[in-house]
């Protein structure tokens, strides 16, 4: 839901939950007593259905004036924006004055695991998306009563409100709208996401009058590009015929979104959806038979009719693909460079004055802006089933979703790559990668236990072996453009790219590793030759080489070169004003402090390594350092304070 931005105003809960009393329809007496009771029963059933439908959103109480989240953020409730069948939408304002839209779902409406899984799936799918024509997901959180999905606010309403105000739109305007919608749908389909509820009311104008698709409540991720879905869902006027057929029709796939694009194009040009009727069953019958027409009193171009007819083909396999739509002649007509805010109330001026050359240029630029020409650098989204389960029975959102730290809880996976040759790791490596949060927890618990054993005798303890760990020797944070690059002390070079994937180029080796997260296998490492790299990796390898040259030319090592004992790469990093924290896939935690002393906790918290500014490295059992209060060879300033900082930093990762 979205409206024009207005000053935030508190809402009275009584006003929000007030509803008009339902008028009972008088029952006409029948000649037969049986007929009378049958009619009365039907009336009661209809009223019960209506009440049941209303209850879901009615259960969503007005949020408190200030909503406090688990991570300490406060949001002040503002204007009521609207409601759907399952949720209500409010403005929310953060401490910096930034205004968002909060989709609010009552916990009372989440009555079973199926409903809960559906809500979490919506959150995870939407959060995984980042596109200029998709409503931006900000955060999700909950209180005792509601679950809140915080979204970018689109203050200029939706295409539905625009059509209500204007009645019909011009073809140049609709061309521009279609390109923006198609750009977003192309992005979704490349990630195996089907929206399944594309309609005018779910497409909003942002502050710059760009269109953005929202509401992923019915969205679904296909297991593969040729798999199908069978759930009958959607909004009646927009449902594709194969959806109505269910399993009997073999299910549905990406083509349902293509159909919806055709419905929206027709509605914008004609003024109403093609199959509209008062009775839903009549709508469905018309859809199945493709019974619609182009009114004579509302003329549109022949090119527009051709495209609409192809988009609304009953056979989904005959509909144009998302890439084919923009090649239709209709897009060769007048094309504006942008949408003006005056469009919301009246027809823009000068649309017929746009030259053919200028239209072609505007069309091309708009496709670029919508990512239609952008190379495919990311792969389909794979949702982790483990993340769809709450960690606490009284909570709806798992900790992996709230607060907003899910970057590493799901990845974008290329299913075709998973059949290629894989690099084999030892079992300890695989286990540590599969559950980083568990490693953080185990390390923190062990460090706490060691503190209780400081007064014990060393000869009664089993001390860990203390070889020097693999660690990060150089690093460059270029995440504002590419990602985080690092060089290990075995000279391997890695880049953790902004999309979450990693390339690790091993020194003195013609191979490199492409590191992907797969639900069944944890981290899958695909071994490739640098001389026969997949096309999508070539650009990434160039970036790795660029960083390697930069680090070798400009940065000094923090430790001496060691032989490769294991394959290690960076899992996650955290920067603060006092230190940078590296979490490695071998279970070690490296802390580079601002005074140039480095500490590495390894062996699940049982061992600790110190690297001095002069590159002197020493590794000892942590219990020994705790008993002595410092390292035996080269002391470290504020040693115990640094160890406490490390413990607390790991604790935060373990319990967030």
UniProtKB/TrEMBL annotation:
Which InterPro entries does the entry link to?
A: Kinase-like_dom_sf, POLO_box_1, POLO_box_2, POLO_box_dom, POLO_box_dom_sf, Prot_kinase_dom, Protein_kinase_ATP_BS, Ser/Thr_kinase_AS
Q: Which residues form the Protein kinase domain?
A: 75-331
User: Which key words tag this protein in UniProt?
Assistant: ATP-binding, Kinase, Nucleotide-binding, Repeat, Serine/threonine-protein kinase, Transferase
Residue ranges constituting the POLO box domain according to the UniProt record: 471-553, 569-655
- Gene3D superfamilies referenced in this protein's UniProt entry, alphabetically: Phosphorylase Kinase, domain 1, POLO box domain, Transferase(Phosphotransferase) domain 1
Map out region (Disordered) in residue numbers.
1-58
Q: What catalytic activity is recorded?
A: L-threonyl-[protein] + ATP = O-phospho-L-threonyl-[protein] + ADP + H(+)
What is the E.C. number? Answer: 2.7.11.21
Molecular-function GO terms, alphabetical: ATP binding; protein serine/threonine kinase activity
- Output the Pfam families linked to this UniProt entry: Pkinase, POLO_box
Binding sites annotated in the UniProt record for ATP: 107
Gene Ontology annotations of biological process type: filamentous growth; mitotic spindle organization
Task: Please name the SUPFAM superfamilies in this protein's record.
Answer: Polo-box domain, Protein kinase-like (PK-like)
Protein name listed in UniProt: Serine/threonine-protein kinase
